[in-house]
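Chapter review: from sequence to fold.
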Amino acid sequence: MKKWKKPLFVVLLSIVSLLVVLVTGAVMYANYYVNDEDIHVSEELFPEGAPKKILAIFAHPDDEIMIAGTYHKLNKDKDVISVLSTFTRGEAGGTGGLIPKEKLGETRTKELEKSAEILKIDHLEVYDYPDSGLADAGHEAIKQTIRELIHLYKPTTVLTYDDIVGLYGHPDHVVMSKLTKEVVTAEMEKEDSPVKRLYFATLPKPMIDLALKLSPTFKERYPRDKGLPEPTIAFPMASEASARKQVLLAHETQWKTAASVQPYHDKVPSWIYYRIFDREYYHLVKSK
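The token string follows.
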């Protein structure tokens, strides 16, 4: 009597099914490892009933990478009005060996414009304060520019980096965050202020610990004696994997920097990478 032979496709199906289970399990484990499950998961960046207007204030083109998933997801709502501002053109950064140094500010501005288009941002503002020189720039002028942004766009929610570390120790980030916090909290004291919430973009402890092991930039710059503020909410955006990857790729001159800050993003398929890192974290600084 001949033994029954399984058709080849059944064997292949079994192998594929096993691989899917293994990959899914690995992704779920990695997701659990890098995230803080105690942080409340929420998409509510706006107070209930308030206008859905959001303003992000950063130092450089490419800083928006850290909130790309949030902005892309929010902008799917037709009622949301989003504004992105950077106070320098990033002219002091690396060129990636692609262009002359004197062309960097112009090129990075174009990269930012492409990123804003991907994120479907309603308004983009780029200023000409000195890159890597904000600590010595005119702070009163910067604060006045922030006030003008608020008065022009009347945001309900303002996002920036934290004012202690600046995510990974960048001095420009810290300066912009301190000045933004000073202006925004003062504005929020006014009875007629449109601003209701101020958030810092931050990271949970598991991600910080991982970054200190894998990221050269974090290893070099992150201050060990003080840390990022603890997240208040985790904004879920696994669905925004493609847009997040496109935004990162839009900043072509900064791929080397991105690889340092987001290790292995260029080695792991984006559909896996951005399902492991499927949340963006924020610390609520002030609410009214």
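Two observations follow directly from the output. The domain at 50-287 is CATH 3.40.50.10320 (Rossmann fold). Residues 100 and 210 are 34 Å apart (CA to CA).
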